Amino acid sequence: MLARESRRLMDLVLWRHAEAEDGFPDSGRRLTKRGRRQAKKMAEWLDARLPDKAKLVVSPAARARETAEALGRKFSSNPAVDVGASPDDLLAAAGWPHRGGTVVVVGHQPTLGEVAARLLAGTESEWSIRKGAVWWFSARDRGGELEVVLTAVMPPELL
């Protein structure tokens, strides 16, 4: 049997915002002290692994922007990844799976978990992604078929 040639199309990193304060309005909730530590640890881990040209797409919610700011890179806020966004909106905003390069999406539950379920299981389900955690996916063209690989799952508690 001949091995099929594989070509990487893009990487998609789903980063759930770190722990945030309770409050209203929801969009204005800021990170807690613990959340700022989570974001800083994860940002250090990501920065060592992300290519310089990685694109960051961030929810306009304060807690997501603060999480992304810990990385110290330019990012764009996009309502397509805000609270209540659909998996389709998030994947379109990221350009999955054909954009190329690496895209980091800083967003919210349940959307991030729904995207993870779709990418790995091909089904709609509400998987849980921990606050501050990263799920890193790669899209590959393998002999003309899309192959999705889970490259890493990293919760901030392990850093």
Description:
The chain is an alpha/beta fold. It has a single domain, classed as Rossmann fold (3-Layer(aba) Sandwich). It has 4 helices and 6 strands; from the N terminus they run E-H-E-H-E-H-E-H-E-E. It has helices at about 35-45, 60-70, 85-95, 110-120, and strands at about 5-15, 55-60, 75, 100-105, 135-140, 145-155. A 6-stranded mixed beta sheet has the order 3-2-4-1-5-6. It is globular and about 50 Å long. The mean pLDDT is about 95.
Number of domains: 1
**Can you summarize the main beta sheet?**
6 strands, mixed
Mean pLDDT: 95
**Percent helix among the residues?**
25-40%
Name of the CATH superfamily: Phosphoglycerate mutase-like
Given the C-alpha coordinates, what overall shape results? Answer: globular
Task: Please list the strands of the largest sheet in the order they lie side by side.
Answer: 3-2-4-1-5-6
Whole-number radius of gyration?
A: 15 Å
Instruction: Count every beta strand, where a strand is a DSSP E run of 2 or more residues.
Output: 6
Discrete helix count = 4
CATH architecture identity:
3-Layer(aba) Sandwich
The termini sit apart by 41 Å
**Element string (H = helix, E = strand):** EHEHEHEHEE
CATH level 1 class label:
Alpha Beta
Unreliable segments of 5+ consecutive residues: none
Stated plainly, the CATH topology is called Rossmann fold
What percentage of amino acids are in beta strands?
25-35%
